[in-house]
## 1
Amino acid sequence: MHITLGKDNIRFNYLNIFFILLVICAWGMSCTETPPGIVKNVDEFNMAIQNATPGDVITLANGEWEDAEIKFDARGSEAEWIRVKAETPGQVVFTGQSYLAFSGEYIEISGLVFKDGYTPTSEVISFKTSKTSLANHCRVTNCVIDNYSNPERFDSDYWVGMYGKNNQFDHNSLIGKSNVGVTMAVRLPTEASRENGHIIEYNYFGPRGVLGSNGGETLRIGTSHYSRTYSNTIVRNNYFDRVNGEHEIVSNKSCGNLFEGNVFFECQGTLTMRHGHHTTVQNNYFLGNGKPNTGGIRIINEYQTVKNNYLYGLTGHRFRGALVIMNGVPNSPINRYNQVVDSKMENNLVINSDYIQLCAGSDEERSATPVGTTFKNNLILGETNLQPFTIYDDVSGIEFAGNVMNESAEAPFDQGFQKVPLQLSKNEHGLIVPSEELLDQIGFGSVKLPVSKEEVGASFYPKDGGERSFDTGELIKVAAGEDALIQAIESSNPGDVLELENGGTYLMTKYAFVHHPITITSPAGEKAVILSEKQSFFKIENGGALQLMNLLFDGAESPDYAGNNVISTSKYSMNQNYALVVKDCEVKDLDKNHSFDFLKSYKHTFADSIIIDQSQFTNVTGAVMTLDMETEDLGVYNVENIKIQNSTFSDVQHEVVNVYRGGTDESTFGPMVLIENVSISNSGKGKRNQSGAVLRFHGVQRLTVNQVNISDSKGIDLYMTNGEPITSLSNIQFVNSAGLNTNNEPFEQQNIQNLSK
Ligand code: CA
């Protein structure tokens, strides 16, 4: 028997069933159906939002929302907002290729989490649905974006793009962006987004690793194109926690903004007033705590005000000093450096901070010195650097008055600086302060963080990330045997220590993939021996880091192919930085075929640090480390810190170290390289060594080579690029070797000898 029902009939029947279920639920019976008003997927959401009227609340059901593309336009009213919220804040989790874009008015979005994926568009949360459909009077609050980073390190996106006017972004947590692109951008492409009055407050900007390139800013307001227009954005009471992407933590590129009451905790970089005028930076706290490259505030442009900021333990130099006033370019193009005009740097409290830079960046192009500017009533106290001021050019356009320094430090002038005995103590809020009298003298007020870590960010989300380190897991003993080490690595947890037997032999017949920090060691005494039948012993994958101690690596079982290595990074882009430590190790006979490297890095991978200490390398047909894979000269590079100490290298056919950072970009700190107490013999002479050097440093920003003996080898190739690299070579002895080859930029040198036997 056939019954033909029209579509309408079917829908009617389903509706009936749904209605009956609703009634059952309403009667209070045990019911697992979704209550009304809760949407379970994108289709249901779209249906609900299309019909939403002022005052409606749309609740997203708890659970994972995978590949959810939420894009909508809606209109609440000033009295009755439309609210889009999580059923339980923190339990609606967007994963995969999800994003949220919205436009309209009086919409509040809250309680959402984005993690385990990345946006398929160019923004994770966007305050627009098209170039002309923008959000106004909207709010995003209590949301999280946690490492929702594109796996391609140099595929650019933003996490938050703010457009329109009068929007608020508050109590959100943005943690761990690891691909290129600003974490949060206020954008001003059209009139409809300018003079916007946005408020960005009580957010937690969580740890962001060093990017090793421009494009790692945490917050940017405007771009150079629209920098002479007003944004009028307020950024207050946010907490920036170890955001180290690049040297601009905040890149202010528009007029009329206010930065007030923010905390910058151990951030490498500065709040940079890069473009635009009439911006105020006040009552912010910069806590460097002596960490490397921590910076303060940099003034460029006109009518800027920097006052009542607290700056402690900042070590950054040059553009990343505690306080910096730049030189400009006469009649600057919009994307270069406007002269500093009529700006104020006043009433700031600078403690144990190393550098204050005036007329910074002075060169042939940047020749316009500051005018009409004041440097007044700043307290500059401390002993970490007794000559904190560097003056690069004519400062007659800056008025100095009422500043205070400790007697032991050197003031740039007698006039405008008072000297006092150094007296610092910790106050009841745990901050280092001078005497009450001095604070009163400049009217600083009480010294207290304007906002605590507890008061910011999404209420439900932890703020303890950022450190992945060695030796934080369990100690696991691994008996010698074929593939015993492979099995131990596969079943290890982050931070575990794998302890091998003294003198034990550990042959690996498979690749050892390293996905998290692992330490491999053997106890003091005879080293454990590691061999591999594969082209790499270890492959450091995204998230991996490796510490090797008291081990012997032998190439005897490696395959007879060209291009083997002991350690390689992933061949694919890694958006997490890795680390490598090699201590008390011996590496020998990496000589199966040619070009057998110790460490082979690939493009778009980045090491936070590589350390070699107390180790011996002999008979290597490739290089000890190749970190020269970013060849486009865009200021991109492969490693932040290299330290090689107390080690010997002999019969290495390619380079011992090859570091390359090309281009003229000025937005990074690294690479930084230290080579000390090292001896190199009979090395660099292989016919496939393309650099022709045994140590090659191109574009290294901070280089120290000390107590190095190079015999019967190729030489050092030193190419210094822009950015005033700090280069120091001392106590280097070349014996029967090629010596030093430089591009003739000046650098510090002492006791470099060329001898022949
Ligand atoms: Ca930048």
Note: The pocket of calcium ion is lined by residues 214, 217, 246, 248, 251, 667 (CB under 6 Å).
## 2
Amino acid sequence: MSEFKLITTEECEAATERLLETGAKVGADSWQMRVKNQTPHCKFGEQGVCCRICSMGPCRITPKAPRGICGCDAAGIVGRNFLRFTAGGAATHSDHGRSIAETLYEARPEGPYKVNDPEKLIRIAKEWGVETEGKDIYDLSKEMGYIAMAEYGKVFGYQNWVSRAPKHTQELWEKAEITPRAVDKEVSYAMHMTHMGNSSKAEALIRQSLRNGLSDGWGGSMTGTEFSDVLFGTPKPVDTEANLGVMKAENVNIIVHGHDPSLSEMICEYADSKEMQDLAKEVGAKGITIAGVCCTANEVAMRRGVPMAGNFLQQENCVLTGACEAMVVDVQCIFPAMGPLSKCFHTKFITTDDRCQQPDSEFIRFSPKTAEENAKKIVRMAVENFKNRKPELVHIPELKAKATVGYSVEAIVKQLDGVTNSQVDVTGTTKPLLECITSGALRGAVAMVGCNNPKVRPDSAHIDLMKKLIANDIVIIASGCSAQAAAKAGLMDKEAKAICGAGLKRVCELADIPPVLHMGSCVDISRMMILASELAKDSGLNISQLPVVGCAPEWMSEKAVSIGNYVVATGIDTFLGVDPYVSGSAEVAGLLTDGIRDWVEAAYTVEKDIEVLGDKMIARIEEKRAALGI
Ligand code: BF8
Ligand code: SF4
């Protein structure tokens, strides 16, 4: 009936093959080649049983050597490694949030950073008990920026955002002693606990892993999301395009890559200016195309409709098109390969943040105080580089899909009101969404998140799972590189309703939404926590009773482990397609996949067979429905 067609993994792979041919001509390296050099991986590392936290080691656990030199067993080593992995992720996400708070502190009426959503700022201020009456909005943004930064080192008490969680969830955290304190405290605590000669008891290490994760999801990440909305606007549905075909041969192409919208927003701003557009024409281009990679792509797509060039394992492809004048990066998930690769082409690889300095890059330090001049310099540098392009190397794959993105919690609540035709009084709650679930039109929801990982055929797990779930009337809420995988394939095109089950298709038609909802970047998984909390409050159920699960089928980063921990600790069963390096200890693996259920009413499932992973998620959702009698 419908002509709707997804872009297939095979088509994406063929496009990549063609780009790698260009790479071979100029002597470029690629992740595909480096994976071969690094395989097989170290088995001790994969099982999590290698310890190198003191110089008596490294120690590795084997049947013949069941303890390290200090006497630590497999459970202690695996547990410590897991906690350090979490601390790395929580610190990274949360520090991104801190940067946003700094930008908020610098907001001024004359710009460049302004308060875009004053209502949201006032709402949060009231939530935090800050006086708003009669206060100038920029006095308030300064005050709130300061308080948000101070939260990171708060001396006593818990994170402010914790009060948003349902009462039952807060009680569970209290009882399990995992209510998150200040982010910096939780990260330091984790590092202290895992120093030589400290904690080696699996249970204590996993407890802190959950608490440290919660300090990210219900602390640093939520700060990043909420104040990004205040500064740059709360996302609303907007149309865009995704995949490499969004780059334009006739234009100057600037790729923004990384995470913090403080940089990318300014680059977009100045690329749009008449001065830069005129300059682009002067150098022989038709205009300037900005396209995003990784979470930066999500940030600018959902607020500006800026197209998404690709996700994590597609970053090198952008340069391999030969049409990338500049790759501008801030922090996180930037391959150190980008510098050497850019040298094989005319591409300027521009690093901007002290925390992400890489060889073979041009470093332009970016700060909220000097944002305007930094952004101008970067855009100018890119435009002037157009003349250095080598036309014989230019090849942009003709692959792109339509996508509607920008489904913040606020936008979902608003949009779903269209589904129920009765109550006018439900506007502003999640009740219409709950009705869809209770009636069975939607069987449930899956939060699809996380990265690409060469251990999984890139994007295939995301796409195959999403196709299977939507065919079973399960709506998807996606973020990070999972969201981009969906957008690149066409699953965020509203026409993708054609491949949904009848119930979800009807909901998509009535609410005018795609079946896979783009909820933003990885820090925006905090939005998913808010949505789950609202659903629980509006339904009178506990979060763990909702037919909702989380899934990261291709995850790779420490941040993903921190996320997994806070999603599970919030009461949402989480399904992983890549092993979290805990198989070396049955005790740690048992805690994560079962034991923690006693504390937080949810646990992990690890399953590398993606088909089976999908079946298990559907079964879990149906179990929860059966328990509710719906
Ligand atoms: O924070 S999904 S590869 S881009 S870590 Fe990185 Fe993973 Fe992508 Fe955003 Ni998230
Ligand atoms: Fe080995 Fe113990 Fe030192 Fe780890 S802390 S490297 S197990 S001696």
Note: The CA atoms of residues 56 and 618 lie 47 Å apart.
## 3
Amino acid sequence: MDKFIIKGGRKLMGEVEISGAKNAAVAILPAVILADEPCVIENVPNISDVSISLRILYEMGAQVDMLNETTYRIDPRGILNCCVPYESARQMRASYYFLGALLGKYHRARVSMPGGCPLGDRPIDQHLKAFTALGAKCTIDHGMVDVTADRLRGSQIYLDVVSVGATMNAILAAVRAEGLTVIENAAKEPHIVDLANFLNSMGADIMGAGTDVIKIRGVGHLHSTTYAVIPDQIEAGTFMIAAAATKGDVLIKNVTPKHLEPITNKLEKIGVNIEEFDDSVRVWVDGPLVKTSIQTMPHPGFPTDMQPQITTLLCLAEGTSIVKEGVWEQRFRYVDELRRMGADISVDGKVAVIEGTGKLMGAPVKACDLRAGAALIIAGLAATGVTEIEDIYHIERGYACMEQKLQKLGADIVKKSFPGVSVKKAM
Ligand code: UD1
């Protein structure tokens, strides 16, 4: 069992380089299946969700070569097997992108129901609605999702809820379908634009990604490409908050400041100073942090994946803050752990009221999901004394070299292994 051990109280100072975006990479890697030739993907983050995606591709018959630490050449021409078994799929939510990609290329896919962070009910009805609209037959049997189609025909797809996953899967399935597909009420996150840009770089015809209507004209062939994944907006936001929580001064490099605007706006309201450059932001604090109200929403709203981190920062601000969760049913499960560190937070359903106490104390805590784990790291960095975080495999699903990056900024954080203790796998 691995733990992070943090001695809090040090200001983060210096520069940090942000990795490629997890939520873009886990869609782009399966999307390579759609190509008729090999592709080179750059700026791929070194995280366990990526390792799982690459392993699934390899197990299906693709040739996967690592060209350097963040660049992979993937040749999908050897794929013979259109099945993603339970053992692989259960380890991450994004395994559902293999459904759309395999359906789009081979007109059939069999993928175990996906795992991922336990954030409440996570249905895939909108993904299946999109596949069905394109002419596929979808069944769920013994935990496996089966989708098959004799032919895929472009169609009108209206998503009943704004869903990142369903939007991306609809794009993947439609990109080689016959004729025009129109996705309405589409999600607008930067990773959706990135997936569309990647597919367009292979010869796809996708317009409107980043708006709520996406139009896809199916093409018969997708050629090779070399493409770099966008920077991770959530990793960048996490470092911005870690800098603010420790009252530090950090230059966060390899970011797209435009993608950070929903986070930047809220942090400025809390009293954090932010200076934007072309592909970096400087974050520092030289005054008091103050209360605010936040509601998470689909992009361009405040991202739900930053909610645990900003709630932690508000524990260190003056006054009473309110945070409403607008996406997931169970995104406040980490609050019990923050209370162990002295936080004064009450939760009623999807609303948390935070009484800023200005300080946190180190304690032994457990990461219950990926972003909860990031929040506990921030809490540990800002707290007095020692914080020990268990179940850090959640954090390693989505943050590349977290402890090394923090150490470089002056944090006292180490990863310790405790051999012989078995742990439950990420679900
Ligand atoms: C993605 C992100 C996740 C982020 C979330 C919201 C990936 C791999 N994960 O998850 O980090 O927290 O977007 O920004 O990119 N819903 C349905 N039916 C569906 C699909 C979704 O009702 O078929 C609901 C969900 O229960 C949720 C909401 O729609 O309440 C948004 O979910 P969605 O955007 O699909 O999240 P994911 O793609 O799973």
Note: Residues 23, 26, 93-94, 121-127, 161, 163-166, 187, 304-305, 327-328 surround uridine-diphosphate-N-acetylglucosamine (CB under 6 Å).
## 4
Amino acid sequence: MTNPLYEDLFGKHAGRETPFLYLVDGKTWTHAAFLAEAARYAHVLIQAGLAPGDRVAVQIEKSPNALALYAACVQAGLVFLPLNTAYTVEELSYFLDNSGARTVICDPTQETALAPVTAAKDICVFTLDATGEGNLAKEARTKPDTYETVPRTSDDLAAFLYTSGTTGRSKGAMLTQSNLLSNAKTLVDYWRFTDKDVLLHALPIFHTHGLFVGTNITLLAGGAMAFLPKFQLDDVIAMMPRATSMMGVPTFYTRLLDDERFTKELAAHMRLFISGSAPLLPETHAKFEARTGHRILERYGMTETNMNTSNPYDGERRAGTVGFPLPGVEVKVTDPDTGESLPEDTVGQIEVRGPNVFQGYWQMPEKTGAELRADGFFITGDLGKFDKKGYLHIVGRNKDLIISGGYNIYPKEIELLLDAQAGVLESAVIGVPHADFGETVVGVIVPEPKAKPDLEAISEAAKTSLARFKHPRELVLVDALPRNAMGKVQKNILREQFKDLFVPA
Ligand code: MLC
Ligand code: AMP
């Protein structure tokens, strides 16, 4: 096979006039229409001078066309680099610099804002919006609807996904064709996906969950998706009767449970509900079962590794656990000091090895070396333990990370911004419980002596630099930060102090 990822996900559907995407407005995209659009995009990109291995940065709204761009990149041997639509121009500028992408595809409304950045870096800009309009689509209309697939091997890079870091600098996780394909194959079997499945897809397609887990599995199994622009309750409820399965972050499930239209009858025909990207509270699991009779299947993954563990399809789906290592994936819990494996029921750091594990961080050998051991085990930064029955429990994180509505937020990035503001001596950013997002961001600020930092001006500064989901939802002033004997800020004390800010005790 000359391009395994393309052939297994896309190519094998060539000529199929069967539905692939069901849209909210009642329209349907067949596999054939989808592949033709992808082929046209591939022509445009290659004619613009891109060569196999080049990165293509993409920051556009979710749509069938946006997904076709993923297929186009795979077919043309380009490295797909999707970016959260919430990222600011400042953030995007970093990703372009770091990745060396010579092409960016953005929404037409963003072209002017991006111009100073793209002109300075001599980057080629294409536009594409959620309705399939923009200069990329316009050029594509004149192109043939087939494209000769560019040969690639399993070890060639297929995608870069950026993930933030504890130092405040995002890292490009390099994923090969086989990283993606091996995981998709495992999950199709484990979760029993077939060509009869219609996945209710309301996740964004710029992260592992919506792009690789949801989409790759559906394509590999030959099924279809009810493809929603985003998680919007009315649409989810309206489209559920069409679907057989759904994947979501815990916020999806708590929002559904808060809506009385989400009944046992509405969910009765569903085969499977899967949750991941953030901890699903056992309470949500229990409420969901009481309402619908379904036990949500929780699994655990990461940008760097795709999916690592899953509760079983048959057998007990244990609330508060992320199940067993997937076939072909090794998971161990180790002592952070010695790296030795720990016995069951003992908390340690979670390490993962398998064909799913990425190749390293783009041009960051030191960071790669610190997290990816020479023997292939990746140190996830999550803390957990195996119970007596072999289920993995995630009990915390060894990395300073906040997960809000399934988005990862690294406090350091926000602290650097807060520290740079007038009147701020230092700051600590923490995650506190939040009913909708699970956790939300709070900035704790120590003013310089006699200074009175302007909190509104600080919030404004956050707006220009940081994506909205990273903004502190509350800024509080304190006299000093609690520190241990080593001088390290004790965030656990701050988290305890501010735990009732959004969820009153
Ligand atoms: C949106 N906002 C968020 C937010 N999402 N703020 C904090 N955290 C989030 N996750 C902002 C909006 O910009 C808006 O700002 C305000 O919060 C309220 O918006 P909303 O309309 O309520 O939010 P909504 O658009 O409905 O989005 C919420 C969400 C979405 C949960 C549906 O964030 C989402 O789809 N999350 C999924 C993330 C995901 O796919 N993670 C997978 C990562 S991969 P304002 O200005 O109006 O106040 C991974 C690996 C693995 O982790 O294991 O899967
Ligand atoms: P990301 O870097 O965005 O891919 O997020 C990966 C992180 O999300 C993991 O390291 C975990 O901390 C967290 N995560 C993913 N799935 C789960 C889950 N089911 N339960 C708890 N945390 C999870």
Note: Residues 246 and 290 are 18 Å apart (CA to CA).
